[in-house]
Write a structure and sequence with these properties.
Blueprint: E1 4-7, E2 10-13, H1 23-31, H2 43-55, H3 59-85, E3 90-91, E4 99-103, E5 106-110, E6 116-120, E7 129-130, H4 131-140, H5 147-154, H6 158-170, E8 174-178, E9 181-184, H7 186-197, H8 205-211, H9 223-231, H10 243-249, H11 252-262, H12 268-279, H13 285-294, H14 302-315, H15 319-330, H16 344-354, H17 359-367, H18 371-384, H19 387-397, H20 404-415, H21 420-429, H22 445-455, H23 462-472
Antiparallel strand pairs: 1-2, 3-4, 4-5, 5-6, 7-9, 8-9
């Protein structure tokens, strides 16, 4: 059913022209004082008014609805592009500066100003929106004159975007299809193309706020906005994925007040808040001690232990207890729900920095662990780039019993180290590429993994490079790595 606007005494259905809002409706939306400055026939302000009056909610909800409509319309275009490309990646004909990349289940289009559209194909065509793809699109824009930039000022991060989507689900404005996907309600589906067709770049955000009947004092990072964001953390199960986003949004003094009461239970919320407290030098020592005492390797995820230990070690507080916590969680061979210990790399990094004599056996296990652990540990050793690093990487490479993916990651890291000897050993020991079996449908995991490593550049994160620089300043005993 189309959107309606209250025009006088009754709800009137809209005509095919969606851009007209009656003067009385706009006045009731709170725009009467601005009518002479900002004419009511402006399509963008009219649409903002209509969406706000119809669906209500806080200001960020308006921008979330607009961005969802734009995403939905872009997915229709993506399907049209896909049909014209015949599953061939490359430049998009007729659309300068747009590039198409087909992936296992769908297509990604990348264009100017950081815009991207990503979608998996299915029977429903362009109807289904993927939560992760949508959040990435919102985050990707490099220009500030699009609704996505306005939404980012309210919901700066995928966790907060997901919290906003959860509110829309509760209001039945979107309908969940899977844990990671949804469709628009019928009313939004009916108007999404009209919303997306508007020229959003021509109107200032403040003008859109006022014309939409929003309180102009209710701005991003206002007290009401911050209270809402901090309030999300009270639901500890649902908020575990948005702690970092809230911490980036909230000023340190407000974060300190909230974290003082929120940090305590041994869960991801406490861990995330301790990580933010460490960044902002917030004193939560007493709370960190409580979390440490409650942690049990048989019950709790090692991520929580890593963040508690890192907080205490960085601040030089209860160092022996923090190191003992690292040892206890590093001793776990397999965490429930995983094939191994998913935090073995991070635990080994803590030992490398704060108790180097204990590090070698844990680093060696991390180098031989899951692909992610092996990747990060290999990258760190390449950044440290000392003889003992070259030796450890070469030892992994030379062990034919190890998983070939682990060895490939060690080869990439060794090739990135300084010195011709390291490069020669990497070339000599790199596993050969898998041979595709044409008699079988699809590709083996080994083929997929090798292709992924070839496509992704060897690019250690700034955090790994910074950690490596700190470790390089520490004295290293040759005997330490000969044991």
């Amino acid at each position: 059913m189309p959107i309606s606007v209250n025009s006088g005494d009754m709800m009137m259905p809209q005509s095919s022209s969606i851009f007209v809002v009656g003067r009385r409706a706009a006045t009731r939306a709170g725009a009467s004082n601005h009518a002479t400055l900002w004419p009511l026939h402006d399509p963008v302000t009219s649409m903002c008014t209509r969406l706000t009056r119809r669906f209500g909610g806080p200001p960020w909800q308006l921008w979330l609805l607009v961005c969802l409509c734009r995403q939905r319309a872009r997915q229709t275009w993506l399907v049209e592009v896909a049909e014209s490309l015949h599953h061939e990646s490359g430049d998009v004909p007729g659309h300068p500066h747009w590039r198409a990349s087909f992936h296992g289940a769908g297509l990604r289009l990348e264009g100017p100003e950081g815009e991207s559209i990503d979608m998996d194909f299915g029977e429903e065509g362009a109807l289904i929106i993927d939560t992760w793809f949508f959040a990435n699109r919102v985050a990707g824009f490099t220009t500030d004159h699009v609704p996505e930039a306005e939404l980012r000022s309210w919901l700066p991060g995928g966790g907060l975007v997901n919290a906003g989507l959860a509110r829309l689900r509760d209001q039945k404005l979107i309908r969940r299809i899977t844990e990671q996907s949804f469709v628009l309600c019928d009313e939004l589906e009916a108007i999404h193309a009209d919303v997306a067709a508007l020229e959003w770049g021509g109107v200032e955000p403040s003008r859109r706020h006022v014309m939409a009947g929003l309180d102009p004092s209710m701005a991003p990072s206002s007290a009401a906005h911050l209270d809402w964001a901090l309030g999300l953390l009270s639901d500890r199960e649902r908020s575990r994925s948005l702690v970092d986003d809230v911490a980036r949004l909230v000023p340190p003094e407000a974060l300190a007040r909230a974290a003082g009461s929120l940090v305590g239970p041994p869960d991801h919320v406490s861990a995330g808040l301790l990580a933010s407290a460490r960044t902002h030098s917030i004193d939560l020592d007493a709370q960190a001690r409580r979390v440490l005492r409650a942690l049990d390797p048989a019950t709790h995820h090692p991520f929580i232990a890593c963040e508690v230990a890192r907080y205490l070690l960085d601040r030089g507080v209860d160092v022996p207890d923090a190191l003992e916590l690292v040892r206890r969680f590093a001793a776990v061979e397999q965490v429930a729900g995983y094939l191994g210990n998913p935090m073995l790399d991070s635990l080994s990094f803590l030992l490398l920095e704060y108790s180097a004599d204990e590090a070698p056996p844990i680093v060696r296990r991390a180098l031989r662990g899951s692909p992610m652990c092996a990747e990060r540990t290999s990258m760190l050793l390449a950044c440290i780039d000392q003889p003992w690093c070259h030796h450890e990487l070469a030892t992994v490479l030379g062990d034919p019993e190890l998983d070939v993916g682990v060895r490939r990651r060690a080869a990439r890291a060794l090739a990135a180290c300084s010195g011709e000897l390291a490069a020669m050993r990497a070339r000599a020991l790199t596993p050969t590429a898998p041979v595709h079996d044409d008699s079988k449908l699809g590709f083996s995991w080994e083929e997929v993994d090798e292709d992924m490593l070839e496509r992704d550049p060897f690019a250690p994160s700034p955090e790994l490079r910074t950690l490596a620089a700190r470790i390089r300043t520490q004295p290293q005993s040759p005997d330490r790595w000969r044991r």
